Request: fold
Amino acid sequence: MSIEQNTPSTENQASLAASVEIPSYTQKQTIGQLLRGDLGSLPVILTLIVIALYFTVTTGGLFLSPTNLSNLLQQIITTGVDALGVTLVLLLGEIDLSIAAVGTFAAVVMGVLMNYHGIPAWEAILLGILAGALAGAINGFFIAVLRIPSFIVTLAASIFYAGLLLNLLNGQATLIIQNQFVLSIAGSSTSFLPDYLGVGLPTLILVLYAGGLIVDHIARKRAGLRARSLLQLIVQIGLAVVIVEGTVAVLENTPSATPGIFLGVPNSAAILFALILILWLVLTKTTFGRHLYAVGGNMEAARRAGINVVFIRIVAFTLCSTLASVGGILAASYANSVATQINPSLLLDAIAAAVIGGTSLFGGTGSVWNIVLGALIIGSLENGLDLKSQGSDVKQMVEGVVLLFAVTVDAVVRRAQKRSGR
Reply:
Protein backbone atom coordinates (compact mmCIF):
# COMPACT_ATOMS: atom_id res chain seq x y z
CA MET A 1 0.00 0.00 0.00
CA SER A 2 1.45 3.41 -0.95
CA ILE A 3 2.16 6.27 1.44
CA GLU A 4 -0.46 8.38 -0.28
CA GLN A 5 -3.12 5.78 0.55
CA ASN A 6 -2.21 5.84 4.26
CA THR A 7 -2.26 9.64 4.43
CA PRO A 8 -5.72 11.20 4.88
CA SER A 9 -6.76 13.40 2.02
CA THR A 10 -7.30 17.14 2.43
CA GLU A 11 -11.07 16.58 2.36
CA ASN A 12 -10.80 13.92 5.08
CA GLN A 13 -8.66 16.20 7.23
CA ALA A 14 -11.19 19.00 6.91
CA SER A 15 -13.96 16.54 7.77
CA LEU A 16 -12.10 15.35 10.85
CA ALA A 17 -11.38 18.92 11.96
CA ALA A 18 -15.01 19.87 11.52
CA SER A 19 -16.09 16.89 13.58
CA VAL A 20 -14.11 18.08 16.62
CA GLU A 21 -16.63 19.63 19.00
CA ILE A 22 -15.71 22.87 20.72
CA PRO A 23 -17.20 23.08 24.24
CA SER A 24 -20.19 25.36 24.33
CA TYR A 25 -20.26 28.39 26.61
CA THR A 26 -23.54 27.11 27.96
CA GLN A 27 -22.34 23.67 29.01
CA LYS A 28 -22.83 22.85 32.68
CA GLN A 29 -19.97 23.64 35.01
CA THR A 30 -18.92 22.04 38.24
CA ILE A 31 -18.67 24.21 41.35
CA GLY A 32 -14.89 24.18 41.08
CA GLN A 33 -15.01 25.30 37.44
CA LEU A 34 -17.45 28.06 38.33
CA LEU A 35 -15.20 29.35 41.11
CA ARG A 36 -12.26 29.41 38.71
CA GLY A 37 -14.26 31.45 36.24
CA ASP A 38 -15.02 35.15 36.19
CA LEU A 39 -17.71 35.83 38.79
CA GLY A 40 -17.40 39.58 38.39
CA SER A 41 -18.59 41.59 41.38
CA LEU A 42 -21.16 39.04 42.54
CA PRO A 43 -19.13 37.78 45.52
CA VAL A 44 -18.50 41.35 46.70
CA ILE A 45 -22.18 42.28 46.38
CA LEU A 46 -23.26 39.19 48.27
CA THR A 47 -20.71 39.94 51.00
CA LEU A 48 -22.07 43.47 51.33
CA ILE A 49 -25.62 42.15 51.63
CA VAL A 50 -24.56 39.72 54.37
CA ILE A 51 -22.82 42.49 56.32
CA ALA A 52 -25.83 44.79 55.99
CA LEU A 53 -28.23 42.09 57.15
CA TYR A 54 -26.03 41.20 60.12
CA PHE A 55 -25.73 44.77 61.40
CA THR A 56 -29.40 45.48 60.68
CA VAL A 57 -30.43 42.57 62.89
CA THR A 58 -27.89 43.21 65.65
CA THR A 59 -28.64 46.97 65.84
CA GLY A 60 -32.40 46.63 65.77
CA GLY A 61 -32.73 48.11 62.27
CA LEU A 62 -30.64 51.19 63.06
CA PHE A 63 -27.99 50.31 60.48
CA LEU A 64 -30.39 50.63 57.53
CA SER A 65 -32.12 53.74 58.82
CA PRO A 66 -32.09 56.64 56.31
CA THR A 67 -30.02 58.89 58.58
CA ASN A 68 -27.35 56.25 59.17
CA LEU A 69 -27.15 55.33 55.48
CA SER A 70 -26.66 59.01 54.62
CA ASN A 71 -23.88 59.26 57.20
CA LEU A 72 -22.32 56.02 55.95
CA LEU A 73 -22.21 57.24 52.37
CA GLN A 74 -20.55 60.51 53.37
CA GLN A 75 -18.05 58.68 55.59
CA ILE A 76 -16.74 56.46 52.77
CA ILE A 77 -16.20 59.22 50.20
CA THR A 78 -12.56 59.88 51.07
CA THR A 79 -11.84 56.15 51.19
CA GLY A 80 -13.49 55.68 47.81
CA VAL A 81 -11.61 58.52 46.12
CA ASP A 82 -8.27 57.37 47.56
CA ALA A 83 -9.06 53.79 46.51
CA LEU A 84 -9.44 55.00 42.93
CA GLY A 85 -5.90 56.32 43.02
CA VAL A 86 -4.62 53.15 44.67
CA THR A 87 -6.27 51.13 41.90
CA LEU A 88 -4.18 52.88 39.25
CA VAL A 89 -0.88 51.90 40.88
CA LEU A 90 -2.10 48.44 41.84
CA LEU A 91 -2.90 47.82 38.17
CA LEU A 92 0.84 48.28 37.60
CA GLY A 93 1.66 45.83 40.38
CA GLU A 94 2.99 48.72 42.49
CA ILE A 95 1.94 50.30 45.80
CA ASP A 96 1.60 53.87 47.12
CA LEU A 97 1.92 54.28 50.88
CA SER A 98 1.84 58.09 50.75
CA ILE A 99 -1.78 58.71 49.73
CA ALA A 100 -3.03 59.58 53.22
CA ALA A 101 -0.13 61.97 53.85
CA VAL A 102 -0.40 63.57 50.39
CA GLY A 103 -4.16 64.04 50.76
CA THR A 104 -3.73 65.76 54.12
CA PHE A 105 -0.89 67.85 52.66
CA ALA A 106 -3.11 69.08 49.81
CA ALA A 107 -5.88 69.99 52.28
CA VAL A 108 -3.42 71.89 54.49
CA VAL A 109 -2.07 73.79 51.47
CA MET A 110 -5.66 74.77 50.61
CA GLY A 111 -6.41 75.85 54.19
CA VAL A 112 -3.20 77.85 54.63
CA LEU A 113 -3.67 79.68 51.32
CA MET A 114 -7.26 80.61 52.19
CA ASN A 115 -6.84 81.49 55.86
CA TYR A 116 -3.38 83.06 55.92
CA HIS A 117 -2.96 84.49 52.43
CA GLY A 118 -6.51 85.40 51.41
CA ILE A 119 -6.48 83.27 48.26
CA PRO A 120 -10.01 82.66 46.85
CA ALA A 121 -11.45 79.22 47.57
CA TRP A 122 -11.41 77.97 43.97
CA GLU A 123 -7.77 78.93 43.50
CA ALA A 124 -6.77 77.48 46.86
CA ILE A 125 -8.47 74.17 46.01
CA LEU A 126 -6.77 73.98 42.61
CA LEU A 127 -3.38 74.85 44.08
CA GLY A 128 -3.84 72.21 46.78
CA ILE A 129 -4.64 69.58 44.14
CA LEU A 130 -1.71 70.77 42.03
CA ALA A 131 0.62 70.39 45.02
CA GLY A 132 -0.60 66.81 45.47
CA ALA A 133 -0.15 66.06 41.76
CA LEU A 134 3.43 67.36 41.94
CA ALA A 135 4.09 65.04 44.90
CA GLY A 136 2.84 62.11 42.82
CA ALA A 137 4.99 63.10 39.84
CA ILE A 138 8.06 63.15 42.09
CA ASN A 139 7.18 59.67 43.35
CA GLY A 140 6.75 58.49 39.78
CA PHE A 141 10.12 59.90 38.75
CA PHE A 142 12.01 58.01 41.44
CA ILE A 143 10.08 54.81 40.75
CA ALA A 144 9.94 54.82 36.94
CA VAL A 145 13.18 56.60 36.00
CA LEU A 146 15.54 55.77 38.87
CA ARG A 147 13.85 52.37 39.39
CA ILE A 148 13.66 52.59 43.17
CA PRO A 149 11.01 50.25 44.66
CA SER A 150 7.65 51.99 45.08
CA PHE A 151 7.37 50.72 48.65
CA ILE A 152 10.51 52.62 49.69
CA VAL A 153 9.78 55.77 47.70
CA THR A 154 6.21 56.22 48.91
CA LEU A 155 7.08 55.29 52.49
CA ALA A 156 9.76 57.99 52.50
CA ALA A 157 7.28 60.43 50.95
CA SER A 158 4.73 59.66 53.65
CA ILE A 159 7.28 60.42 56.37
CA PHE A 160 8.40 63.62 54.59
CA TYR A 161 4.91 65.05 54.17
CA ALA A 162 4.01 64.20 57.77
CA GLY A 163 6.85 66.49 58.83
CA LEU A 164 5.99 69.12 56.22
CA LEU A 165 2.46 69.36 57.63
CA LEU A 166 3.84 70.38 61.01
CA ASN A 167 6.03 72.97 59.32
CA LEU A 168 3.19 74.50 57.28
CA LEU A 169 0.93 74.91 60.31
CA ASN A 170 3.77 76.06 62.58
CA GLY A 171 2.95 73.45 65.19
CA GLN A 172 -0.77 74.26 65.15
CA ALA A 173 -2.72 71.02 65.50
CA THR A 174 -5.90 72.07 63.69
CA LEU A 175 -6.87 74.81 61.25
CA ILE A 176 -10.60 75.57 61.17
CA ILE A 177 -12.16 76.11 57.74
CA GLN A 178 -14.75 78.88 57.62
CA ASN A 179 -15.05 79.44 53.88
CA GLN A 180 -18.65 78.67 52.95
CA PHE A 181 -17.81 77.52 49.44
CA VAL A 182 -15.47 74.83 50.73
CA LEU A 183 -17.93 73.80 53.42
CA SER A 184 -20.74 73.52 50.87
CA ILE A 185 -18.86 70.72 49.12
CA ALA A 186 -19.33 68.18 51.91
CA GLY A 187 -19.53 69.87 55.29
CA SER A 188 -22.77 71.80 55.60
CA SER A 189 -26.54 71.37 55.45
CA THR A 190 -26.47 72.69 51.87
CA SER A 191 -23.99 70.10 50.56
CA PHE A 192 -26.69 67.97 48.91
CA LEU A 193 -27.88 67.73 45.31
CA PRO A 194 -31.32 68.98 44.28
CA ASP A 195 -33.83 66.16 43.86
CA TYR A 196 -33.75 66.02 40.05
CA LEU A 197 -29.96 65.60 40.07
CA GLY A 198 -29.98 63.32 43.08
CA VAL A 199 -32.24 60.88 41.24
CA GLY A 200 -31.13 61.51 37.67
CA LEU A 201 -27.34 61.29 38.00
CA PRO A 202 -27.20 57.91 39.80
CA THR A 203 -29.69 56.51 37.31
CA LEU A 204 -27.58 57.76 34.39
CA ILE A 205 -24.42 56.23 35.83
CA LEU A 206 -26.29 52.98 36.46
CA VAL A 207 -27.42 52.90 32.82
CA LEU A 208 -23.85 53.50 31.64
CA TYR A 209 -22.58 50.76 33.95
CA ALA A 210 -25.14 48.25 32.71
CA GLY A 211 -24.55 49.28 29.11
CA GLY A 212 -20.81 48.84 29.53
CA LEU A 213 -21.26 45.33 30.92
CA ILE A 214 -23.59 44.36 28.08
CA VAL A 215 -21.32 45.78 25.36
CA ASP A 216 -18.30 44.05 26.88
CA HIS A 217 -20.25 40.78 27.11
CA ILE A 218 -21.30 40.95 23.45
CA ALA A 219 -17.80 41.92 22.31
CA ARG A 220 -16.19 39.02 24.15
CA LYS A 221 -18.73 36.57 22.74
CA ARG A 222 -18.13 37.75 19.17
CA ALA A 223 -14.36 37.51 19.66
CA GLY A 224 -14.67 33.97 20.96
CA LEU A 225 -13.35 34.92 24.40
CA ARG A 226 -14.59 33.64 27.71
CA ALA A 227 -17.45 35.69 29.11
CA ARG A 228 -19.88 35.64 31.98
CA SER A 229 -22.97 33.56 31.51
CA LEU A 230 -26.17 35.42 30.70
CA LEU A 231 -27.53 34.57 34.16
CA GLN A 232 -24.45 36.02 35.87
CA LEU A 233 -24.77 39.19 33.80
CA ILE A 234 -28.47 39.61 34.63
CA VAL A 235 -27.90 39.00 38.34
CA GLN A 236 -24.99 41.45 38.47
CA ILE A 237 -26.97 44.22 36.77
CA GLY A 238 -30.09 43.44 38.79
CA LEU A 239 -28.27 43.64 42.11
CA ALA A 240 -26.65 46.91 41.05
CA VAL A 241 -30.07 48.36 40.18
CA VAL A 242 -31.56 47.28 43.51
CA ILE A 243 -28.63 48.64 45.54
CA VAL A 244 -28.26 51.96 43.71
CA GLU A 245 -31.92 52.85 43.27
CA GLY A 246 -32.75 51.60 46.75
CA THR A 247 -30.01 53.76 48.24
CA VAL A 248 -31.15 56.80 46.26
CA ALA A 249 -34.74 56.30 47.44
CA VAL A 250 -33.58 56.10 51.05
CA LEU A 251 -31.35 59.18 50.75
CA GLU A 252 -34.08 61.22 49.13
CA ASN A 253 -36.28 60.44 52.12
CA THR A 254 -33.69 61.14 54.82
CA PRO A 255 -35.08 63.78 57.20
CA SER A 256 -32.96 66.78 58.09
CA ALA A 257 -32.91 68.75 61.34
CA THR A 258 -35.61 70.97 59.87
CA PRO A 259 -39.04 69.28 59.93
CA GLY A 260 -40.43 68.55 56.46
CA ILE A 261 -37.03 68.99 54.75
CA PHE A 262 -35.14 65.99 53.37
CA LEU A 263 -31.40 65.83 52.74
CA GLY A 264 -31.02 63.91 49.45
CA VAL A 265 -27.83 62.70 47.74
CA PRO A 266 -24.61 64.33 49.07
CA ASN A 267 -22.53 66.47 46.73
CA SER A 268 -19.45 64.46 47.70
CA ALA A 269 -21.12 61.25 46.49
CA ALA A 270 -21.75 62.88 43.11
CA ILE A 271 -18.07 63.86 42.93
CA LEU A 272 -16.98 60.29 43.72
CA PHE A 273 -19.19 58.74 41.05
CA ALA A 274 -18.15 61.39 38.51
CA LEU A 275 -14.51 60.48 39.13
CA ILE A 276 -15.32 56.78 38.78
CA LEU A 277 -17.07 57.41 35.47
CA ILE A 278 -14.16 59.48 34.14
CA LEU A 279 -11.57 56.89 35.16
CA TRP A 280 -13.67 54.07 33.73
CA LEU A 281 -13.75 55.86 30.38
CA VAL A 282 -10.01 56.52 30.55
CA LEU A 283 -9.13 52.93 31.43
CA THR A 284 -11.46 51.23 28.97
CA LYS A 285 -11.78 53.63 26.04
CA THR A 286 -8.34 55.22 25.67
CA THR A 287 -4.90 54.10 24.58
CA PHE A 288 -3.48 55.12 27.95
CA GLY A 289 -5.89 52.80 29.74
CA ARG A 290 -5.04 49.84 27.52
CA HIS A 291 -1.34 50.53 27.97
CA LEU A 292 -1.75 50.74 31.74
CA TYR A 293 -3.29 47.26 31.86
CA ALA A 294 -0.62 45.97 29.48
CA VAL A 295 2.23 47.29 31.61
CA GLY A 296 0.65 45.82 34.72
CA GLY A 297 0.13 42.47 33.04
CA ASN A 298 3.68 42.13 31.69
CA MET A 299 5.96 45.16 31.79
CA GLU A 300 8.73 43.64 29.67
CA ALA A 301 6.31 42.50 26.97
CA ALA A 302 4.71 45.97 26.99
CA ARG A 303 8.11 47.61 26.59
CA ARG A 304 8.98 45.35 23.66
CA ALA A 305 5.63 46.19 22.09
CA GLY A 306 6.66 49.83 21.97
CA ILE A 307 4.72 51.13 24.99
CA ASN A 308 6.40 53.98 26.88
CA VAL A 309 6.53 52.20 30.22
CA VAL A 310 8.25 55.07 32.04
CA PHE A 311 5.59 57.56 30.97
CA ILE A 312 2.73 55.24 31.96
CA ARG A 313 4.17 54.67 35.43
CA ILE A 314 4.84 58.36 36.10
CA VAL A 315 1.33 59.32 35.01
CA ALA A 316 -0.22 56.57 37.16
CA PHE A 317 1.52 57.78 40.33
CA THR A 318 0.70 61.40 39.46
CA LEU A 319 -2.99 60.57 39.06
CA CYS A 320 -2.93 58.54 42.27
CA SER A 321 -1.68 61.51 44.30
CA THR A 322 -4.05 63.87 42.48
CA LEU A 323 -7.01 61.74 43.51
CA ALA A 324 -5.63 61.51 47.05
CA SER A 325 -5.56 65.33 47.07
CA VAL A 326 -9.21 65.49 46.04
CA GLY A 327 -10.01 63.00 48.79
CA GLY A 328 -8.11 65.10 51.34
CA ILE A 329 -10.01 68.25 50.39
CA LEU A 330 -13.35 66.42 50.60
CA ALA A 331 -12.36 65.11 54.04
CA ALA A 332 -11.41 68.63 55.16
CA SER A 333 -14.76 69.98 53.98
CA TYR A 334 -16.63 67.21 55.79
CA ALA A 335 -14.67 67.76 59.02
CA ASN A 336 -14.75 71.59 58.70
CA SER A 337 -11.01 71.64 59.40
CA VAL A 338 -7.56 70.50 58.37
CA ALA A 339 -5.10 68.98 60.81
CA THR A 340 -1.50 67.88 61.05
CA GLN A 341 -2.66 64.46 62.26
CA ILE A 342 -2.85 62.00 59.36
CA ASN A 343 -5.74 59.55 59.53
CA PRO A 344 -3.95 56.34 60.58
CA SER A 345 -6.54 54.00 59.05
CA LEU A 346 -7.12 55.79 55.73
CA LEU A 347 -4.27 54.07 53.88
CA LEU A 348 -5.39 50.63 55.02
CA ASP A 349 -9.02 51.40 54.18
CA ALA A 350 -8.17 52.62 50.67
CA ILE A 351 -6.00 49.61 49.84
CA ALA A 352 -8.56 47.25 51.36
CA ALA A 353 -11.39 48.85 49.36
CA ALA A 354 -9.44 48.45 46.11
CA VAL A 355 -8.44 44.84 46.79
CA ILE A 356 -11.85 43.79 48.10
CA GLY A 357 -13.35 45.42 45.01
CA GLY A 358 -11.37 43.01 42.84
CA THR A 359 -8.16 44.88 41.99
CA SER A 360 -5.27 42.45 42.03
CA LEU A 361 -2.12 43.19 44.02
CA PHE A 362 -0.18 41.42 41.26
CA GLY A 363 -1.17 43.95 38.59
CA GLY A 364 -3.12 43.86 35.36
CA THR A 365 -6.60 43.16 36.80
CA GLY A 366 -9.21 45.45 38.31
CA SER A 367 -12.27 47.62 37.76
CA VAL A 368 -12.95 51.09 39.14
CA TRP A 369 -16.70 50.43 39.46
CA ASN A 370 -16.13 47.85 42.17
CA ILE A 371 -14.30 50.44 44.27
CA VAL A 372 -17.67 51.56 45.60
CA LEU A 373 -18.48 48.05 46.77
CA GLY A 374 -15.11 47.68 48.46
CA ALA A 375 -15.46 51.07 50.18
CA LEU A 376 -19.00 50.19 51.27
CA ILE A 377 -17.80 46.94 52.82
CA ILE A 378 -15.04 48.70 54.76
CA GLY A 379 -17.31 51.59 55.71
CA SER A 380 -20.15 49.28 56.71
CA LEU A 381 -17.87 47.32 59.01
CA GLU A 382 -16.64 50.49 60.71
CA ASN A 383 -20.10 52.04 60.88
CA GLY A 384 -21.77 48.88 62.14
CA LEU A 385 -19.14 48.31 64.81
CA ASP A 386 -19.53 51.95 65.90
CA LEU A 387 -23.28 51.39 66.26
CA LYS A 388 -22.47 48.37 68.42
CA SER A 389 -20.15 50.57 70.53
CA GLN A 390 -17.03 48.60 69.63
CA GLY A 391 -13.65 50.27 70.06
CA SER A 392 -11.03 51.01 67.45
CA ASP A 393 -9.13 47.89 68.52
CA VAL A 394 -11.98 45.64 67.36
CA LYS A 395 -12.48 47.63 64.16
CA GLN A 396 -8.83 47.40 63.19
CA MET A 397 -8.70 43.67 63.89
CA VAL A 398 -11.80 43.05 61.78
CA GLU A 399 -10.48 45.18 58.90
CA GLY A 400 -7.14 43.37 59.05
CA VAL A 401 -8.85 39.99 58.80
CA VAL A 402 -11.06 41.16 55.92
CA LEU A 403 -8.05 42.54 54.01
CA LEU A 404 -6.06 39.34 54.53
CA PHE A 405 -9.03 37.28 53.37
CA ALA A 406 -9.43 39.41 50.22
CA VAL A 407 -5.73 39.13 49.32
CA THR A 408 -5.78 35.37 49.97
CA VAL A 409 -8.80 34.89 47.72
CA ASP A 410 -7.12 36.96 45.00
CA ALA A 411 -3.97 34.82 45.15
CA VAL A 412 -5.87 31.51 45.23
CA VAL A 413 -8.16 32.47 42.34
CA ARG A 414 -5.23 33.63 40.21
CA ARG A 415 -3.41 30.34 40.75
CA ALA A 416 -6.57 28.37 39.92
CA GLN A 417 -7.11 30.38 36.74
CA LYS A 418 -3.46 29.92 35.76
CA ARG A 419 -3.78 26.16 36.12
CA SER A 420 -6.93 26.17 34.00
CA GLY A 421 -5.21 28.19 31.28
CA ARG A 422 -7.10 31.46 31.81
Notes: The first helix runs from residue 3 to 6. The chain has a mean pLDDT of 84.
